Amino acid sequence: MKPGARALGIAESFRGRTDAPDETRRSTVAGAVVRADRVVDGLGYRRCTVGGTDATDAVSELIDDVGRPDVRYVLIGATAPAWFNVLDFSAIERGSEQPVVSVTFEDSEGLEAGLEDAFSGAELEARLELYRRLPERRPVSVNDETVYVRSVGLEPGEAADVVRGFTPEGGRPEPIRVARQAARAADSYAESLVRAE
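-> structure tokens emitted (197 positions)
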């Protein structure tokens, strides 16, 4: 990976009031443009509904807002952020015209059981249909750690190389790590403004 190659890392954070009405519970989605040599080269933000179905739109709008044609990859640190707000990686890839790589960090049996516990009827069916269309999740060894990768627009081996190329240490790719910190900081700040009112 060339040192100047850029990826847009995307992560989310929710630290809002758990007693707020469902329709007002919003998660902060952050995007961080990071070069392979760890230089941060841009930030952007959006919001999505906790437990909603708007995360794909929020990510797509964030990519448009950042507006960086020099970004070669979109790295997303989730499959269903903001409490089962399932992402459509194919739609994100089509809209951004960039390969999309999802990286998660825990081995699991998948989200179907959790979705079935949390939703029913049409809400469940819509999420299950989207979740079942996601590309296969594959384990990837990175710096003596294992992460789990799904990709659209790249072959699995290429996606693994991208993840390794943007992970200089540990198991979390730098663009996702920076985006996660940015999302947490922004979410914490937004919550402090609400408390101050």
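DSSP finds seven helices and seven strands in the chain.
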